[in-house]
Amino acid sequence: MNGWIEKFYIEPKLFFSYYGFGWIKPIGEYTYLLFIVCVLAAFFVMIGLKYRWAIGVFFVSFTYIELMDKTTYLNHYYFVSVLSFLMLFLPANAYFSIDAYLNPKKAFQKIPRWTGDSIKFLLSIVYLFAGLAKLNSDWLLKAMPLKIWLSSKYEIPLLGPFLSENWVHYAFSWGGAFYDLAIPFLLLYRKTRPYAFGMVLIFHLLTRILFPIGMFPYIMIVAALIFFDASVHHKILRHLSSAFRIPKIVFDNGKSLVISTLRTRVIQGILIVFFGLQIILPFRYLAYPGELFWTEEGYRFSWRVMLMEKAGYAQFKIVDGHSGRWFYVDNSDFLTGFQEKQMSFQPDFILEYAHYLRDHFESQGHNQVEVYVESRVTLNGRRSTPLVNPSIDLAKEKESFKHKNWINPFSDEIKGI
């Protein structure tokens, strides 16, 4: 795994926690075992073997991995977690699976329509909120941050010479917003579906070439197949059955899965709450004052994909409240390079790190430790400005869902959703 498990989950001294999940931490060398369990569970889900157990183990293990350290947060990790939670309630092993092959009682050729529609709805939420988030002045009127990112991709064959052109930056910005907002509807409509899937292929393969975002483009390409009719799925399965010499006819029993009324109502009740949260969470930023991109209060878990380029530095000053002596901290003594980079422009990281420094130096014999930070951040190409009020003792500030009033106001305005 190219050593990244050790780099991100074993070597660091400090792991940044999500609020309320501080009890979830890497488990030392056993972290490798956790990843192995997750991979095996994913394989069992793929082939449909012991599906219910497999998807449960996958959801728990993958989500635990995601919650171990928010330094590695990415939207597509969150997507995999919520999709796997959704699949806990879906009969994904009813057809063309080992479970169905070994036990005819679990084999069904037809399943209730709402089971497939729930995945379509989740994908539509992801795309629509990603599109709505792009309707802001930085993205549409300044082509930011794509102007920064694309200009640095000059070495890419064929595309490279064009990526420094201003019109290309705006074409990608406006095209990306249109794609996200339109693609769910184009995929839902049968006549436009083939062309929409072509757009899915082009869009996600292009993003894979331009940006290092891992497996997300391939996940979205494969997931988009859910919008096609059963006839298309059967054609794909015929090719798979031929390639792996699996007798597909064994599964074509014409049986329909009937879920009891009570169970259906319970599952649908859970899904209503689940989808309600998915719709509400992206709007929670409205409860906070200030610019979302600056404070990042309500930014995560809202499908705001690749909307900003931030960089900064944070210098921490430790004061012994008893003696008045003070000194600056060398962040590299406590953080990896990647952690320091992420910490420098995210307020909740800065607060958690300040608390860590307080506890560390108090354990070293310092009294009534106070922690101050001088931090400057640049957002989407703007000049760097102070992020944190340097006169506030962060050692006394508590983490909560309340607004962090020690964050300096944003010196500019970004209009939009």
UniProtKB/TrEMBL annotation:
Residues 2-232 form the HTTM-like domain. It is a multi-pass membrane protein. InterPro entries: HTTM-like (IPR011020), HTTM_dom (IPR053934), VKG_COase (IPR007782), VKGC_lumenal_dom (IPR053935). The chain crosses the membrane at residues 32-65, 77-98, 119-137, 167-189, 201-228, 266-287. One of its GO terms (molecular function) is vitamin binding. Pfam families: HTTM, VKGC_lumenal_dom. Keywords: Disulfide bond, Lyase, Membrane, Transmembrane, Transmembrane helix. It is found in: Endomembrane system. One of its GO terms (cellular component) is endomembrane system. Its main location: membrane. This is HTTM-like domain-containing protein. It comes from marine sediment metagenome. The lineage of its organism: unclassified sequences, metagenomes, ecological metagenomes.
